[in-house]
Amino acid sequence: LMDDIWVWVSLLSMKLWEDTVQIREMLRYEYNTTSKYLTPSVIFSGMPAMLKIKGCEFFSIRKTPSILFARSTDIPNKGKDSSIWIEDSEFSSLSHYSGAALTVLPAAYFPKIDIVNSSFRENNGFVAGSFLIYDSKLTVNNSEFIRNYAVSTGAAMMLGGTSQKQFNQNNVKLENNAAYDMQVISYEAIDYKLTFTSQDELGEKKISQTLENGSVLVVSNLEFLRGNLSLEFIDGKGRPAPDYSGLGVGKATVLISNHKETKLPTKFTVAVEQAAPAGATLPLNNVLIGGVADEEIPITVRFSSERCVNVEKKFVVKFRGCRAGEFIVT
Description:
Blueprint: H1 2-15, E1 20-24, E2 29-30, E3 43-45, E4 50-54, E5 57-59, E6 67-69, E7 83-87, E8 90-92, E9 102-104, E10 112-116, E11 119-121, E12 124-127, E13 131-134, E14 137-141, E15 144-146, E16 149-153, E17 157-160, E18 167-170, E19 173-175, E20 178-179, E21 185-187, E22 191-199, E23 206-210, E24 215-219, H2 221-225, E25 228-234, E26 250-256, E27 266-270, E28 273-276, E29 279-283, E30 296-305, E31 310-319
Parallel strand pairs: 1-4, 2-5, 3-6, 4-7, 5-8, 6-9, 7-10, 8-11, 9-13, 10-14, 11-15, 12-16, 13-17, 14-18, 15-19, 16-20, 17-21, 24-31
Antiparallel strand pairs: 22-23, 22-25, 25-29, 26-27, 26-30, 28-29, 30-31
């Protein structure tokens, strides 16, 4: 019976767009290593779907999320509604790399998720013990997260993309949850802190300056070309936060508004180095400005990762005159 429910729900939720998949009073689902069926999860949808779960128990499911709303970029009607309603249900002793109870990774649709009077106990993962939710509106009411564990961050849940700005909770009990970084509810990066670092021509003095929008960086030409832009990923509140989408690997461009030689905007693609969930480095040695002393150049840096960060920063570089022992690249 459990296998029949498993396959029925998985296939039905993948196909239904107009109707609502409802599961009520399913007494218990337990992991079965002898099952002849292979599905991505107990409940799986690769397309927008309307899912309601009431009075169910998910217990001891391993190596797969209990509920998975996966990515789908090829959707004919991207405006389709998608929702998950979970009420009076229990999720316990679940284990997966991330989001053991609920993983939502939409690419072209934006689910509305409501959790009501439900319990999430003793679930664990490397990232996000119970929930891993991207680009969704999440509301949790009268529910509890007890003794959940994550190896890295998000003992109870991790919210990525736009989810951190659309998260509401009321009367939620968080008790004895643990993660390496001590974050019970963690947020993935949506922005970055930009810092310029370099050494002077003699290799003696290290230069370091945080660059906000509108900042002015005063350096020699060579100091700039020897420099790096360091990106530290942060969440919506300015706190250090990881970007796990492609392990922080993304694309960066540097736009020079008035290149000295061409007098035209010039765009450089900058290789991303030392990419990690915490940040990345953008070397500037291929950004051949060819400036002269005291020339002022507006610069725009745009960094975008697969799912999280897509932010533009603007600052001004002012090239100072050379000092004794220095020289300028032309």
